[in-house]
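User: ok so my PI wants both of these folded by tonight, can you help

Assistant: No problem, let's get them done. Here's the first:
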Amino acid sequence: MTDAPTLSQLELRVLDLVRDEVLQTPPGFSVSSDLFEAGLDSMAIMQLLLLLEEHYSVAIPVASVSRANFKTAQTIAALLVAQGYVVSEGGPETAEAPAPVIAAAPVAVISEPAKPEAKFDRLPLRDCDFFTHAFDEMLRQAGQGGHIARSFIELDKAPDVQAIKALLLELPNRFPFPILTAQLKKPSFFSLPIWVPATNPRPVELHLWSEESSAGLLLTHGAEKFQDAQTKLDDIINTSLPQYDDGWMNVRFDLVEKADGNFVFVFSWSHLIMDGIGAEFFLLEINRLLGGSSAPVPAFDLTDLQDQRGWGERWKTAKVMPAFFDTVMKKPFEALGSSKLSSGRAHFQVITLTEEQSAEAARRSAEISGPLINMPFHLACAMRAHQRVFTHRGQKPESLMCCIPIQVRRKGTRGPLFQNHLTMFFCNLLAEDLTTLDSAAQSLHKQHTRFIKDKIGDAFRDLMWLMRPMPPSLHMHFINWHMKGKFSSFYHSNTGVFAPELKQFAGAQVTNAYHVPSFSDPPGTGVFTNEKNGRLVLTLCWREGTMTDEERAIFVDQLKADLGVA
C-alpha cells in the first residue's frame, strides 16, 4: 500500500486524534507522553475506541484495552498495527518528527465581551443549566429542598478554622465568587434567565458542630453540640439553600467534629452553579487560597456562546431524542420509591472498601468490561442490587432504567469551576438482562457504545437548548410526559478519583472524600461511586419510606457480592 503511513506517522496521527477529540493536552505533549497523566479515563477511552475504529477500521478487543496499550500515542499506534492496521516501512526521510508544541488553550479565554473580568456582572446559562433550573424549582415546590448536592471531605484532625472563617468572609467580594450569592433573573418577560450579583450579598455560612462525646475542639470556635454524627450529617443533607428576593445562598459549609477524633468538612452547593467535578475544582481552589500548593482553577467556560447554529441546525441533531426516549421507554420500568413527588427525609450510607477489596472489585470489573472501562460494571452492580430488593418484595418489573450524568468537559482541562458541563446517558435493562452480572454489564456496554457512536449526548444537549424558552414548570412537564413521571429507576454516577491533588485541606490530612448528589423521590434511591486514596467509595442514598432497614441490608449484600467483596 503506497499510501500507508509509516509507524511514526501513524503515531503522530493518533496523537492529533487524541488531542483534537478527546484530551486537552498541555504544551509540549508528544507521542511518548503519558495519556493517563493528561486525564484519560474510562469514558474518554470509550470515545477513543470508537474514534480509532472509525478512522482506522480496526476493532480493538476488550482484552487489549489495557493501561499498557493506551499509555501513549506510541503504544496505541503499536496496538493498531498488532490488530491488523498496515503501515509502510519508513526510511530516514520518514523518521519520526517531533510532535508540534501546541499550547493548550486556556479553558475560560474567549473573545470579549463574553468573558467576565475583574467584576462579576452577568453570566448566561449553559444548555443543561436550563434543565437543572427546572428540576430545582420542581424539587423546591415538592418540599425536597431543591437541586442541591454535597461534597464531603473527611479529615484526620481539626483544620485551621480561623483561616477558613476569614476566607469565607471575604470570598464573595473576590472575582469570580459573587456567584456564590448571585441569583437568576430575567431582564425582561421574553428574555432568558441569567446570573446577576445579589443586591444584598449575605456572608457565606460556616456552621460548626461538635459531637457530645468528642474532645470538643470546635466549641471554642462557637460550635453547637449534637448527639449522633450520622443524624447530624443527615440533617445537613436535608437543609435547603435559601433563595431571598435580594440574593440567593448558593453554597453552605459545615464542619463536624466526631467522637472518634476525626472531622468532616461538608460543602453544600446548588447544582445551578456547578456540577460534581466543578465542586472538586472549587475545593481545590479554596485549599489553594488557604495556602495549599496548586495552580489556580479558571472560573467560567463561555465557549458555548461561540456556537452560532440556529434552531434548524439544532433540531437536525436534537430530533433523534424523542425517538430515543420512546425506545428506552418501550418496557415499563419501576422505582423503589413513590410514584409521585414526596417530601420524605433524605438519608445516606457510605461504604469505603479497603485497598485489597478495591483491587478485587477492579479485577472483577476488568474481567467483565476490560481493565479500563468500569462504568458498565458499576452500573450493572447497582441495577442488580435494586432488582434484588424488588425480588424480595415479590415484584417483577419488566425493566430498570437509569439516566446518568456524563461530563462534557474535555478530559485534562483544569476547570472551570462554575456552570454545569453535562449531558445525560439513558439506559435500561430488561429482566432477562439482569440474571447475571456479565449479561447486565455487556448490555450496558453496548448501549453506551451506541450512545457515543450515535452522538446521543449531543442530541440531548441541543434538545435542552431548544427547550430554553420554556418556563420551568412546562420544561418538567415535557420531561415527565416522556419519562412517565418516574424520571428513572434510581440515580447513579461514577466520578472517578475525587480531586487527586487534594491530599491535605486547611492543614489537615484528607482521609476520604465523596459526593452525596441531589436525588428526588421518585425514584427515591441512588448509588454513587468514586475513588479516594486508592479505595473505592460507594454512597447509597435513599428517601424516607423508600427502603426498610432489612431491604437496605439486602441491597448492600447484593452490591458487595457483585463487587466481589462480600
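One down. Here's the second:
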Amino acid sequence: MSRNCTNFDADFIATVIREALGTPVQVVSLLTPLDGRYQITATDAGVYLSVWAPAYGGEPVRKAAVIQDLMSRNCTNFDADFIATVIREAIGSPVQIVGYLPPVDGHYQITATDAGVYLSIWAPANGGAPVARSAVIQELARRNFVNYDRDFIARVIKEAIGSPVLIVNSFSSAQPVQNVRVKVGLDHLEARVDVTRSPDAPAVTVTQLMDELKAAGVVYGIDEAVLETLAQAGSGANVVCARGTAACNGEDAQLKYHIDPDSQGRPVEMEDGRVDFKEINSFLCVQEGQLLVEKVPATPGTPGMDVFGSPIPPRAGRDRRLPVGKNVVNVDDWRLYAAIDGHLNIFLDKRINVIPIIVIDGDVDYATGNIEFKGSVIVRGSVQPDFVVKAGCNLEVYGTISGGMVEATNIIIRKGIQGMNRSIIKARERLVANFIENATVYADQDVIVNDAILNSSVFAGMRVMVEGRRGLVRGGRISAGEVIRASTVGNQSGVNTELEVSVNPFLKEELLSLRKEIKKSEALYEELKLSVSYIRSQGADQLSREKRERYQKHEADYHALTERLEEMRQRAAGIEELLNTLKPGRIRISGFIYPGTKVALGSLTKVLSQPLQFISFYAQGGEIKFSSLR
C-alpha cells in the first residue's frame, strides 16, 4: 500500500507466502488490460468457435454475445452450455459447435432469346445432389428446343460456372406452340406454373392460366397478381401462383415444477465457476400440502388448407402423465401436492416421492448401532470407526466420517472424512466434503471438496473439483470421467500423485454385473410367477399346512424379487445414461502442479518432470497437451 499498489489479490499473496518458492511471482500487473475475444468460422464441415482468454485483468468473452452473433448468422442448432464451456476454457483454437450444414442441391435455368438458347448451371453445396442431364434434356424437349449437343450439355453441367452458356444457336418449331404446365408440391401447399411458347404463338392470358389451374384442381390461395405479371411476361418457369395454409400443430403438455430437482445436494455455483460451500442445498424438504408439480395442458393446434381446398388437420399435442409416486396427492390429474412432511426424491423414471427423514442428534456409534434406511438420514454428530450408515436417498453428516462406512445417493459431510485407511464412501450421485484424508471414495457423478484431498483414492463418474480454501490434492489417486479441477497438486518433494480422466471402470463393471443379475433374476421371477399363479388357481385355502407355508414363502419371494428387479433396472439405466453423456476429458490446475505427478487422459499418460502453473491438460492427436489458463 505504501507504493500505491492496490490492484492485488490478498488470497493469492497469502498463497505465495505459504509456498515460499524463492523466485519472483507476479502479484500486480501494470500492463493494459486485454479483453477476451472470439472468432466464428463456418465451413462445409460445420461452424467453429475460437475463444482467447483475457489478460491483465481484462473482461472475458460473454456467452450472450457469442449466441447473438450465431443467431444473426442463422445458426441455431447449438448447445448453449457447451458454448459456455468453450468460453471458460478459452484454448484459442477452433472448436466445432454446430454440425454439418444442410445440403444444397445444384439447380439450373434455361433462357431463350433471339440469339438462341442459354443454359445456366449452379453447383451443389454441402454434399447436395448435382443437376441431372436428363432433367435438362427433358426440359429442352418440353419447350420444343432442338439441335443441341448432349455431350456439351454434360460438360456445362460438370463445370457449373453459374452463368449463361449458349447451347442452341437458333430454335424453331414446326408451328406456333403455347404450353402451360401446372405443378403441385407433394405436400399440396404450393402450386407452380411453367409457361412456354414459340415466337409466333399468341400470348397467354390470365383467363387461360386460371382455367389451367382449375383443371389441375387448384382452387385455394391463388395469387391473381402473379398471374397478371406472368401473362405480361409471356413466359416463365417455376412461378409460384398459389399457396396453401399449413396446419399449426399443437404443443405437447408440459410439467411445471414448483421445486428445482437439479439443486439437490449441489453447492451454489458462482459466476466465475467456483462454488460457495456456505450455501449448500442439502435436501429438498417439502411440507404437507405444498404444491410440487402442475401440468400445462396440450393444445389441439390450428387446421390448415391445401391448394386443392382440402382441410389439413393439425397434430394435437401429446398428453403427459403426472409423475405420481409415494406420499403425494394427485388432484384431477392436474396438480401434485405433498401428502406428508418429508424429503423429495425423484427416481429415474421421473416418479416423485415424498419420503420421511431420519434425524440422529448425536454420533453413529454403539448408542445407535448401524443405520440402514430407505429414505434420507441426517447425522448431527459423526460416524465413528467401523460403523455403517446406508441411506436409500441422501445423507448429511454435520461432523466427520472417522473410519466409518457410508453409502447413499447424495452425501454431504460438513467437516470432512478421516478415513484411517479403512473408510469406504459410496455416493450414487454426488459427494460434498470439506476434506478427504486416507479414504476411498466413489461417486457416480461429482466429488466436490473445499479444502484438500490427502493420500486418498477418489473415483467420480463425471467431475472431481477441489477449488475451495486450499484446493490441494497430495498423494493417492484421483479419477474422474469428465474433468478434474484443483488449485495445487503434489508438492516440491515429488510425492506420488495420480490424476486420471477416463470412463470410470468401476461403473462399467457394475453395469455388466447388474445386467447379468437382472437376466438371472428375470428367469427366477418367471418361475415364481408360474408357481404362485398355479397355487392360486388350485385354491390356497384347500392346501395342506405344509403346502400353504411353501405358497406363502413363494409369494413373499415373488414380491421381494419384483421390488429388487425394479431397483436394479433403475440403477442400470442411471449408469447407462451417465456413461452416454460424458464430455471430452480435461484436467484444470488453477495453481501449481509439481513433479512426480502422473497425468492420464484415457489411455495416454504423462509424468511431470517440472512444475507447471495455471495449466489445462487435454488429449489431442494421440498425445497429452496443455494450455495456459491465463
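The CA atoms of residues 500 and 600 lie 5 Å apart. Residues 102-163 form one domain. Good luck tonight!
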